[in-house]
Each structure stands twice: as C-alpha cells, then as structure tokens.
Amino acid sequence: MTERIGVYVCHCGSNIAGVVDVAEVARWAAENLRDRGVVIARDYKFMCSSAGQQLVTDDIKEYDLNRIVVAACSPHLHERTFRTATARGGLNPYLCELVSIREQDSWVHTNKAAATAKAKALLAGGVERVRRNEPMEPIKVDINPATLVVGGGIAGISATLEIADAGFKVYLVEKDPSIGGHMAQFDKTFPTLDCAACILTPRMVAAGTHPNVELLTWSEVEKVEGYVGNFTVTVRKKARYVNEDLCNGCGVCQEKCPWKVPDDVFEVGMGRRKAIYTPFDQAVPRIPVIDRPNCAYFKNGTCKACEKFCDANAIDFTQEDQILTLQVGNIIIATGYDLFDARRIPQYGYGRLPNVFTSLEFERLCSAAGPTNGNIVLRDGKTAPKTIGIVHCVGSRDKNYNAYCSAICCMQSLKFAHLVMERTGAEVTNFYIDIRTPGKGYEEFYERVLEEGGHFVRGKVADITDAARLPGEEGKLIVQVEDTLTGKQRRIPLDMVVLSAGLQPRQNAKDAAKLFGISCSFDGWAIEKHPKLDPVATMTEGVFVAGCVSGPKDIPASVAQGAAAAARVLGMIQQKQMNLEPIKATVHAEHCSGCRICNTMCPYNAISFIEAEGVSSVNAAMCQGCGTCVAACPAGAISGSGFSDEQVLAQIEGLLRLGADGEPLRRTAYPATHHEAIEEAVRA
Amino acid sequence: MSPAAKPKVAAPAAKSAAKSAAKPKLAIFGAASCGGCDIAIVNIHEHILEVAAAFDIVLWPTILDGKYSDVEAMADGEITITLVSGSMRTDETVHLAKLLRRKSKFVVAFGSCASEGCIPGLANLSSSKEILDTAFSTSSTDNPDGIRPVWEYQAPEGVLHLPEFEPMLRTLDQVVDVDYTIPGCPPESKQIWAALQAVVAALNGTGPLPPKGSVLGAGESTVCDECARKRDVKKISRFVRIQQVAAFDPEICLLEQGLPCNGPATRSGCGALCPAVAAPCIGCYGAAEGVVDYGARLMSAYASVVEAQKPEEIDGILDGIVDPAGQFYRFSLASSLLRGSKAAWNDGEKQ
Amino acid sequence: MSAQAPVAPASTEGATPAASPAEGGLFEPVIIGFTCNWCSYRAADLAGTARTKYPPNIRLIRLMCSGRLDPTFILKAFSEGADAVLVSGCHPGECHYIEQNYKALRRFQLLQRTIQALGIEPERLQLVWASAAEGVRLAGEIARVTEEVRALGPLNWPAARLVDVDGVDLDAAWEATGGDAAGPPEKAGGANPDHAHGNHAAVVEAVK
Amino acid sequence: MERITIDPVTRLEGHGKIEIFLDPDGEVANAYFQIPELRGFERFCVGRPVEEMPTLTNRICGVCPEAHHMAAAKAADAVYHVDPPRPAKLLRELLYSAFYVTDHTTHFYALGGPDFIVGPDAPAAERNILGVIGKVGMEVGGQVIQARKNGHNVIEMIGGRKIHPATAVPGGMTKGITEEQRAEIEKIGRWSIEFAQFSLKIFDQIVLGNDAYKEMVLSDGYTHRTYYMGMLDEKNKVNFYDGRVGITSPDGTRVGTYAPAEYRDWIAEHVEPWTYLKFPYLKKIGWKGFVDGADSGVYCATPLSRLNNADGMATPLAQAAYERMYETLAPKPESGGKRIIHHRLATHWARLVELLYAAERMVELATDPEITSPNVRTVPTEKPTEGVGCVEAPRGTLTHHYWTDERGVLTSVNLIVGTTNNYAPIAMSVKKAAETVIHKGVVNQGLLNRVEMAFRLYDPCFGCATHSLPGEMPLQVAIRNSDGEVIEILSQNC
Question: CA C57 to CA C45: how far, in whole Å?
Fold first, then answer.
C-alpha cells in the first residue's frame, strides 16, 4: 500500500505559532515530504477544537488519506483526541501519530529559526514513523467479578463493603487475627471526637458477617500470578489452633488460659493478654488465636486448659497452615503504614525515659478499653501528670528520617491536647514546627484547643532529658527547645512527653510491591498511576491501592480511597470485559532459537519457555508493553507493536533529515529509500 | 586501471556466447577472499559434475579457465547467475564487481566476505595508512627507506601499476545491487548444494524463484536452534576465556558457562558445528533474518542477562569481554551501521 | 482558517527564513534523545509546561521504557549523522516496569565500551536518569550535554552520507524513481566514478 | 620498448600479474611478478585476544587454514608459556597430516599434475581435473574425490569443521576424539597410503616413462641453485608440525638450523614498491636481488626444498620413495655432502613423496595409544608475553609471532607466510622460463604454458599471499608495442 499522509500543524493560538513558523513548517512538509507520502499539509489555529478534528476526519475521505500526523502538543494530552478523530474518518486510530512541537519545542526554545527547523525535523520523524505504523486492535480480556482486598484496616474494610454491597464476591485478607487495623487502637477521632470503636465496630461486623465477604484473617498473600481480570492468588492461612467452624467466640478459653503475655501489638507493650487471645474485645472475627511460642502446651506439652473448658471442642492443637488459591479479577492493596520508631531519635529518650510516650501508646492510655481504663497516668500506672508536652513531627519533615509530612500528626496532637485538658487538669504544651489543619473542621478544632488554653511553642525540640540543671527541674523531663517566635532557647520541665510519631511505609513494602507487580518510591510508598487524576490505580492493570499504602492519610481520606478503589473495580466488573492497550511484545516462533535470553527479561512473568517446541512465548494479556524483551532478543525474533524497530529506526532517519540550521543533514535524504529506489531501478 | 584490463576482442566472446546457448550461464568470482569459499564449492564433491552439467560455467578463475575479456564482450544480463565471494578491497575489485553486475541477471553475495566483510573487515578498525605502515615495518622487515607499494611505479623498463588499496573494505552490496546472499565462512557445502539445487529448479521452472533479497542456504533462526547443548534461563555473573577453563560441561550452553558464544545472534544453517566441539560460535553466518546490526543485537543480549545492578559491578563483569569491537563485530564490522572506526573514516575522507 | 494547499512546485529543503541557530558561527550539534514514556518524556512535558528553556539541538524519541532501548537505535542515530545521543530513563529503583532501567544501564555501559573501541568519544553517548517531576533537571542536563558536544565538534559520521555513492549510479537511480523524488542529489564527484578515493573526497566537499 | 603483460584474467581479483619487458631486439629485458593485494592481518589482529588467533588467521587462507590454525595455536601456547599435553599435540599433528594428504592430492591431480598427466602442450581447457580423468580414467577421478572427502572428514572430526577448523586453543585442544573416530581415521590413513603409492606409480608411468618429460624436468630452463629451507625432526627427517628449521646451501651444506623463536636471526624481508608482497631472504647472506647461487640470500621452501634440506623421510615407504627420487635425479652428493635436486619441476615428485609420508604418519598417530586420551588441555598459569609458532605449510615454512599485554591481548603481530618464502624464486623461475622461450619478440602459445608451469610447480598459494587459489592462474598475454597499443592477444583457451 502506498502511504497517503495528511499532516496537520497546530498553532495552539500563539502557544506554538508564537515561536514556530507553523505555516512554513506545513509548506515545507507539503513540498519536501511529498516523496514520503505526504499528500496534504495544513496549519490550523486549534487542531484540538471540534473544527480542527473535523479537518482530519474530512480530509481522510476527501484525499483518501491512510495516515495522519498531527504536530501539536504532547501525546499525553491529545493522542486519544486525534486517534478518535482518525477513527471517525474511517481509519484505524493507531495510524495517527502525534508530534509534540509545543512542550518540546515552542515552549522551551526562543530562537524562532531554530525552533522552526526543529519542528520540521520532529515532523519528518513523525511522518517516517507513521509510515511504519500498523493498524492495531485493543486486546479484550474477561474480568473475574471476584476481588481481593489486602489489609483489613478502615480503607480495606470500606472498599470491601462497597463491593460486597454491590453484590460481588470479596476476599479480605488480614495478617492479624482481627480486622480493624490502626483505627481500632484509637480512642477518639479528630476533629469530631466520636469514639473510634463506636464508628469502626459496626463496619467491622458488617464486613465479618457479609454474605459476599470471605474474611481471611491471620493470613498472608504469598504469590500473585496472572493479569487483570484473571489473577490467581496464593494465600497462607496461618494455623489458629482453633476450629473456626466450631468456635462460638464465647471467650471462656481466654478466661481460663493461665498464661499472661505482654501485648506488643494491640496494646503496644503496655498491657498483657493471654496465650490464647483475640486482640481486643470487639475483634472480628471473635475467634481467638493460640500464641504458639507462648503456649504452655506447645512449650512443654502440658496445660490444655483452653481445650478442657471449650464446650464447642473448637481447640485443635494439630491444626496446620492452609494454602488457599483464590481466583480474582482485581486486587485492592490497603496494607497501611508502620509508625515511625521513636527510638531512632535517641535525644528524645523514648525507651530510656519512662515517661516519654509514643502517640499510639497515648491512644491506648486514653482508651477506656485500654490498659489504664482510660486514665492518663505516668508509666508507674498511678501518678497523674500535671504537665504534658506533645512533640509534633517526630520523624517527619526531617531529612535525617523522613523528609515528608505525615499529614495526621498535627491533628492527632491537637486531639491529644484536647483530651488531656478535658480529662485531667494537666497543662499541655505543643511543640510544633507548623500547625497544618487542612480539612473540614480542622482549623476550627485548632481554635478550640487554643481557647481551651493549650500552650504552643514554635520550634523543633532539640533534646528531652531528665538531667536537672535548674531549680524546679528535679524529677521532671526537661524539653530543650528554641522558641522561634521569641528567638529564645527554652528549657521546659514536664511530667510527661508524648511523641507524635510520623507514619512510614510498612517495613516490607518493597517486597509487597514486587509481589503485586507495582512500583513504589524510594521511601516505599506505592506509586499511583497518576497522583492527581488516578490516585487509586497503579501502573499495573487490575491492581489498585487505598489508604496509607500510597502515603500518609487521615481516616476520611482513607475511607474515601477505599470507596474510590471499589468504584474503579466495580466499573471493570460491570464491563465484564476490558480493553488493553495493544502495545505488546510477540515472539515469532520461526525466528526464535530458544536461546532463552528473553526469559529473565519480564518482571510480570509474561514470557514462558515452551520446552516441547523449544521456543519462548509472550502472554499478551500479561505483557505490559515495556519492550525490554524486544530489545534483548539477539535473533530479532520478538517484535513490539506500537514501538517496532521499523517505526523507531524510521523516526530516527526522519529526525535527522535536517541539521540544527534546517539545512539537509546529508546530501541525499533517505539512504534506505534510496536503496528501495535502486532495487526498483534494477527490477525495471 | 591497467590498459590490459579492457582488450577489445570479439572472437572469444562470440564463441562463448554461441557455446551451449541452451544452458544457463554461471560465473564464480572471488574478490578479496581466502579461497575457502571456492574450496567449499569444490567440497560438494561429485555434485560438482552435476553443476557442470546444469550450467555453462563461463567464469571460475580459481578452478577452470575463463576470460575477463569474454565477460566484457558479453551482452548485459547474459550471465544468468554470478556467485561473488570475497570483499571489495581495491578499486579494481570494485570495478570487476560492477562489470559482473551489469552482465548478470542475478548476483549472489557468496560467503561472509562478500555479504558482511568477514574477518578482513576488521581492517576497518584502522586507517589504510596504518595498515600499510604496519605491514611494511614489521620487526622482520628490512625497509630502512620506509618504502611503500605505490599504485604507479616507474621501473627502469617501464611503468608498473598496482590496484589501489581502498581506504575501507566494503561488502558487495555496498558496491552493487545484490539479489541473493549465501552466508557463512565458508558456507557449508551441503547448504551450497541445496541452494544451487533450488536455483536450478527455479530456472527449470520446477521450483519457485526465491524473492529478491533472500538469504539462501541458511536457516531463519539462530545457531542455538541447531545447538544440542541444554539451555536454561541466562544469568551471567562472569565471562570466562576459553583457555581459562580446562573442560566445559559438554551438555550445557557455553554462554551459561560464561564463554562468550555468538550463537544466540548468529544465523542458523551451519549445524552449530563449533559449540559441538566445545568452541564458541564466532558468528560466521552473520546476523539473523531482519537484523539491522549484528553487534548491537549481541551486545543487547549479553548486557541484558548480566547479573548486576550497580555500575561498578556491571563493569566488573563486562571487563571479561576484553575486545568488544572484535567480540561483537568479528565478521560483520564492514556491514554494520558504523562500518568502521572513526580513524578509518577520517583517513578515507582525507584521501 | 488557513488551509495549506497540498500541492506546490518542488523547491529546495530548508528554505527557513531568518537567521540560522548557528549565530556567532558556533557549531550546532544535533542530538537524539531517547526518553521513557513514564518519566523522562513526562519530565520534558513538564519542562515545557513550566516554560523551562534549553538548547534546541536535542530531538526526543519516546519509548515506553528505557528497557526498550536497543543499541541498534543509538548506532543508527550516529550513522545517520547525530553528533550525540542522550539516553534517559526512570531513576534506579523507580522504573515504571519495576527494574527494566537496569537493563538499559547495562546495555549503555557495554555499548560505551564498544563505541569507544570504534573511536567515538564517550561524551557522545550519555545516560541521564530523570523522574517525571524533574523537568528542570532534564533541561539542565540537555544544556550540559549540548555544550559538551559543541566543544567536541561534529561527529559527522560519513556512513550515512556514503550510502548513495557505494556502488550505485545516482543518475540511473534517480531517473528510475522519477527524478525529483527526494530532491536531486549532487553527482558523485571524482573523475573516475569507480574511484572510491575520489568519491570520498567528493562526498566530503559536498557536505562541508 | 615492447612489453608483454602476462596477466591472469582475474588480475582484478588480486592474483599475481606478470609484466615482461622486451628490449629493442625482442629479448627479455626484465620480468616483474606483482602481487596486487593486501589485507592487513598484521594490523587488525592487534587488539584481539590471543586465543582468537587460530580462528582469525584461518581466514588468511581457505586452502591451508589448518597451517595457520596450527601455527597460531603454537604461537599462543608460547605466549602463555604453556606446553600442551602430549595427546593434544598428537591430535594437532594428526589433523595436520590429514590436511597434507588432501592438499597435496588436490594439487597433484587438479592443479599442477595436469601439466604432465594431460601433457604440457595439451589445450589448457583440458589441462584440469576433468582432463586428468579423461586420461587416466574415471575411477581415478573418483579416488581423487574420495581422497579429498576423506581428508576433510578427518579434519572435521578433529577440528570441528572441514574448512577453518576451530578446536586448537592455547594449551591444547577443546576436545579429544572417540575410539570410533580413531578407528575411522586409521582406516582412512591406510587407504591414503595405498592412494599415495598409486599416485607415485602414475607419476612413474606418465612422467618418468616419457623421455620428453624427463628431459624437460632436467632442462636448465627449470633449474635454480638456491638455498633450501624446511623443518626437521630431531633425526633431521622431514617434519610438518614441529621441530627446528634447517637451511641447506646450493652446494649441499646444511648451514644451520634454528628454533622458530630465532627466525629473525635468519630471515629478513625485502620490500619493493611495485608489489604488495615482501621478499624474505636469508639475513646472514643478504639481499642481492633476484639471482640464485650461494652468494644470494634467496631461498626456497617447497616440498622439494624440504627434501633437499632433510636427511630423509621419517617413515619407511616414504623413505624408499625418497631414495628412488634422489637415485633417479641426483645420484651424486654435492660438494657440501648432501644430494640436492635443483630441478624445480621435480617438486611435483617431492610432493608425492610427502603425500606418502603424510599418509604413513596419519596411521602412526592414529594408532598411538594416547590419541584418544581426554587429557587435551593445559590451563595456562603464567603471564602472557610473547611467542612464536612455526609449522611447515605445504607451500613453505609458516611463522606466526605475537606480542601481547598482560591480559593476553595482542599488541603486535608478525607473519611470514608459506608462499611468501618462494616469492623471489617464483619471480626468478618465471623470468628464466621467459628468457628460455622468448626470442626476437616471438611469442607463442607454448610460451604461456612453459611460464605457467614454471610458476605452477611452486603451488603458490596466493590465498596466503593475496588470496587466490594455488597455481590457478589462467594466463593472458597482451603484447603491446612501445606505445602500449595491444597488437596481439594470446590466451590459454583461445
């Protein structure tokens, strides 16, 4: 087929035309690219306008065009627009190429001659490339309506319920014995101060009892295979030693168990639990777990108290880990965050100075269900503090630890201040860098705390010590800080200090990202497909993120993301099928020697080696189209649609048609074509 | 060009034209070659007689007699098919290649030299001056006056001419249009015979004429396809040199054992002879179907499976390839995208 | 609206009005840049949106990933007359496709060794990591590379320019393709068309 | 002055080119034998890893790649100061002997032999292998083809490929051979012995049985008294693969022997501006131009030279053939004490004696108990530096000399290639033949043939020098008057 190419050069008002001589570019294309198949070249004010698009659609019919090149803005903005216009004209949309002469030319260069010359070169590149474009059809895959949600915190629960309520199956996997996540450990939630348990528990229960939800607590995802719409997930269900079908959650086993163990998880080391336990009273499911390392029976073969007292005969010491295989169409990752370990800042004395607490410890202190039944007391468990300091940004906004802002600590600290003043007569001092209250009712809450008489010292705390130097410091914690408002160094003696520790990615975040085939930042936060426009999708089709896994968020944001992710998943379930970009690698078996160089190229395991035929092959649906295997194949047996060797090599020739001065770079335009010409000559 | 090159003699031409007009005419011509290609043809053994029967061999200077002058006097396209082995090294070779192109219906680039430049193409790493200087100043050369061959020399009795040494070695298709290619250094005799049979069949109308540009007498894939060694996924944590290992595992892919084997990138057709005798493929069958630059493909493949992510670790492994230019362009430098070193090009332009 | 008439009498290329960028007679290199769709190409877009200025000598090609980068592309660019090639991709550890940029890094390091063995200065092939957010940085790197290459002078690889004289009769070829195909090429110089030396010289004159 | 250009039709291919100048009386004033091509291996091998030289230098010559393969491997051994295990050396020499059988067979029947078998005055069109078959019968043709097949099969068994073998590496070989292969090779060896004897018989009948031929062989036109070079084993018998190189003077004195590494004490190369090939000569005697005799450094390295230089052959049947040859052509020792044959055409006979030796040697090696040992490699432990490797190529002593850096990458290369040794003698023989037959400017068909024979007996392998096939130089004589106009063209198949 001989190419008949239409070229359209956009003025973009003056955005392009102000620097690039668009008319000259179009004229040049019409005259000098005729031998390359250009039959018409136009320049137009706004190609993206409906009139501009119409130009393309009409010319396709009028001039019998079979290729389109639009020189305008970045393809990331309008590629789809012009592909659609091309399709309206009756051509395959992939026979349209965009050339960026705005972002990559008029907006970044000032010399008009040079910019015009560059525009011509870029256009020539586009023309050469489009000559080699192939019609392509998007790849359709079926969507399995079942969904996997990983992480039973508030974000995961929200997502789960949205999907389940819409009538579709959800597997909710949680590594702890109960769902609920961090929120379950909180006392009150800012700024409304409703009790965390009161608002969370109903949703936990709803999730736990929902007919469409299969709860897999005390479980972890071990393997993810497949691709959007068709994932196969391997889950390890750890042994509880309690038969879930028999157990009625009466709790007698926990009563009777004679072995108390410090609770490092839920009570962050401040409380104790039994060797058989549910993390907290409202746990969902209410089925306890035997803490094998601390269970007397497992340690020395005696006891079995729980078994004796269990009327349901649910105790099963022989239980083993189960490996489950789930088939799902989409995955939502809501694995949350870890709290910054305050021990990493030795000068704050956490772990050394008993009355330095972390925010999570303080949450438990405040909680009526907590170790002190809600009494705010010192580590001794009885003395009520008269003065309390709250240090903001611990481990956040600090190049030595985490450079980012943890988003929630300001409001959390204000909440603490309020609770202290509400429940004790103690005096509260906040040590802050900036107070950040971006959120509905947040600033008002700040005002309220101010009115309540909370003190605020603006400055980064340098040191917390119990070494008294001045009178009145004896037996106290002294907070050393520079008050940046007064410019004075201050030593403030306090009874108790709360460190508002920041949020950071789960320590295994990077492995998790690999497991699910998504990418994460240096810190370890999951990277969204687009931070603004597509915040819950990832670069991997069918894998979504919700809550703090992609960065610090407060509860409302996490809930919203859970719902958003659910909405995205439901959308795909509704379509039943989805289109994948046809940018894929294909192995041409007749050329493949089975050298297996490509086998290790694919991070999505889309390449497999077929022993029987001794060739490798690419699973199109799993292929993400990066083209690494195409470039790696020593036999040139793998082709990459959309970015084929032919397209790129041709584009290079086009780009190098002109020198920087706009003059031909070589005596003759296209060696390749030249050879074609000679072959014709010889055949003739 | 020496005057002797173009004697105007009609007689022999007329004769050769008359001679068996029925049979298709075959010419076999060696440019700058080692003669291995001709030996490979002779090594089709008794079949050579069938070739002699099928064709009227009008030129095969290395084996039978024949006259340049006859060729000159022939009509354009009178020779049905010409096999050219050897590369373009002097202005005279280029001239004869063009003559034969004119006189032939089909021209075949026969063997590695003609199709990709072969080992002698490595000359394109140096300037022609460097090459002459080296050859005529070796440690055993007695040349106090620094004498160099000159293309025109005034001997006491008269003028002597030498063909000019071109600044760069070129492949046949860089000089004339080529219809078919038969790769290999040299092509395997059984492959030659197969290709000749195909051509004969086509000429008798009993078989299809291969499309122009086809590669004959070779496979569509690469050497690994024919290699009996077991292959696994590739992970190279170190490159070894053949003399460093007393014996390689006879079962396992040599590249997996760290020996830089060119098999993955080299066109199949030889039967993987070298890996079969525990020697690495050196790439004499050239690039696989449709590959633009052999060396680039092999570089990409090797680098892709190097087991390291830190630049210094990567360099540590790559140090195992002591001669990148030779490793990746041993046979194909003259036909590669760059075709030679900057030094060679600059020298070429100066002249 | 102004719609350009499709057909017009053939005229010579590069009839660009106004001054050439080579003001002050500086050597203006042509640089080909390979960018990753997810990071460096977006960085270039960002540089545009932010109106960050950089020299016009670079011409970018978009690939889906630096892992797609085939050394063939780079050698092709050199052979077609590029003075330098800039390769860019996501920062190590941030590859959109998880780890493909490491493959690009390894190919780059090996190709560096090979082109140096062929006498090409290492500065003519450079690798720059740039995230989607680093528009300004990318612009700065482009400026730096442009200056370094300007200082090196033209690479001016003759291979591309010699293709047509390599054994084909230009006139015949052009007649065969209806003459004005891609604009009439200059005739290969040298008294004796078979005389490669003559040709080389002629080519250089024609280009310089 | 009138000029005759004896010019291979394939002159453009880089074959030799002969220019004969006649003086005004039409007598030969001078003859120039030009080699019009160069490939530059000595330059572009620099920078390559030394272990690649056996395969790289194969490509110097597709006719005798085995010679370069072996010389390169031996030089690489020397560079690494490593001594390959005995089985490896046996394998190399076995491959090499099989190659000799093939190569000498090819030359005698297809290239040089036809001059005699079909007859020097037969039309050139018949003086080729087909003509030979016509003369002595189809089954001989079959045997010749069989001999070549056999040889190449042995080469492939040991070397991996029929042409351009691949298995010789620094420190030995990449692999050994199986018992099945050994048995096959022994069988081929025994067959080859019979074939060689049969070939000698043919030579007897056709050449020695014909007084005209004998006379031609002994005629002064084909006689030169130069120095002779060849490789000797420890008993001073002819050896192809290893040993010291001996030099014998025209008067039959062995003036000395040298270890390959000392080659530069004995050999230097002279340069002329009208040819791309250099002229090696004996350094101790010096370059005196294209003249023979004891005062001229010109020497000859051919089958005949090897026999002249040696005390005989190392195998019984070959020794007998050697005796017979010398009884026939040089019954008396020269003043220096050795029997020397200066008649160049006897080279064909010498070649057949070597053919027989090579065949016998094949069997010796194939029946050595160690030949199938898997111990074929010694891994080098020393730092690579410099090394010389030397073998007897069928067309003369072949020397490779490498220098490397500490990584074993070549920093310098020097090659003195088989045929090159004989460049000066060939030029002299051509001139002499011309002088004998050209008088008063009269040139005829016979001239061409005589000159071609003088040239062809050396079996000159311009694959080594300039890469055309040995001896294959169809000739064309352009006779021009002093204005350079062609007044007549003679060529072999007119």
Answer: 17
Helix (H) or strand (E) holding D247: strand D244-248
If phi > 0 it is left, if psi is from -120 to 50 it is alpha, else beta; for residue D326 that is alpha
Question: Smallest Cβ distance to B157: which of D30, D52, D124?
Answer: D30
Cβ <8 Å between A107 and C51 = yes
Q: What is the pTM of this model?
A: 0.83
User: Do C65 and C100 fall within a single domain?
Assistant: yes
- Min distance C190 CA to chain A CA atoms (Å): 16
The confidence score (pLDDT) of residue A214 equals 97
* Count of structural domains within chain C: 2
Mean pLDDT of A13-39: 96
State whether C21 and A114 contact (CB < 8 Å).
Answer: yes
The answer to whether the complex's ipTM is over 0.85 is yes
pLDDT digits (tens, 9 = 90+) for B49-68: 788 888 888 877 655 555 56
In the sheet with A477-483, reading across from the earlier edge strand, the strands are: A461-465, A477-483, A488-494
Per the omega criterion (within 30 degrees of 0), is the bond before B186 cis?
yes
What's the confidence (pLDDT) of residue C2? 41
pLDDT in tens, B75-111: 999 999 999 999 998 887 888 898 999 999 999 999 9
Contact D38 B135 (CB under 8 A): yes
Q: Where residue C41 sits, what CATH number does that domain have?
A: 3.40.50
Q: Which residues of C touch B (CB under 8 A)?
A: 70-72, 74-76, 78-79, 92, 99, 102-103, 105-107, 109-111, 113-114, 117-120, 155, 157-159, 166-168, 194-197, 200-201, 203-204
Specify the higher pLDDT residue, A560 or D15: A560
Tell me how many residue pairs between chain B and chain D have CB atoms under 8 A apart: 323
Q: Where in chain B are the domains?
A: 5-117+171-203, 130-161, 223-320
Shortest distance between the Cα of A530 and any Cα of chain C, in A, equals: 10
The CATH topology of domain B5-117+171-203 is Rossmann fold (3.40.50)
Which of A521, A533, A666 would best serve as a mutation to test chain C binding (most C beta carbons within 10 A)?
A666
How many Å apart are CA D345 and CA D218, to the nearest integer?
8
* Residues C90, C189 within the same domain: no
Please state the separation of Cα A497 from the chain's center in Å.
34
pLDDT recorded at residue B158:
82
The nearest CA of chain B is from the CA of A65 a distance in Å of 29
Instruction: Give chain D's domains with CATH numbers.
Output: 2-37+422-491 (no CATH), 83-222+343-375 (1.10.645.10), 224-342 (no CATH)
pLDDT at D268 over 60: yes
pLDDT for residue C198: 27
Q: Which domain holds residue C129?
A: 31-152
Contacts of A113 in chain C (CB under 8 A): 16-21
Q: Is residue C192 part of a domain?
A: yes
Question: From the list C79, C114, C200, which residue is nearest B325 (CB)?
Answer: C114
Are C56 and C145 members of one domain? yes
Residue A632 sits at the chain B interface (C-beta within 8 Å): yes
Residues 6+ apart with CB under 8 A from B197: none
**In terms of domains, do C113 and C171 share one?**
no
Please indicate, yes or no, whether residues C82 and C163 belong to a single structural domain of this protein. no
Q: Do B174 and B26 form a contact (C-beta atoms < 8 A)?
A: no
Q: Tell me which residue of A554, A556, A552, A561 sits closest to A504, measured CA to CA.
A: A552
Q: Is C189 part of any domain?
A: yes
Please say whether the beta carbons of B110 and B136 come within 8 A.
Answer: no
Would you state the pLDDT for residue D476? 46
Same domain for C81 and C182, yes or no, is no
Point out the least confidently predicted range of A136-140, A186-190, D78-82, D444-448: D444-448
Residue C173 placed within a domain: yes
Question: Cα(A44)–Cα(A7) distance, rounded to whole angstroms?
Answer: 11
Residues of chain B contacting residue C106, judged by C-beta atoms under 8 Å apart = 303-304, 306, 308, 314
Q: How many residues does chain C have?
A: 208
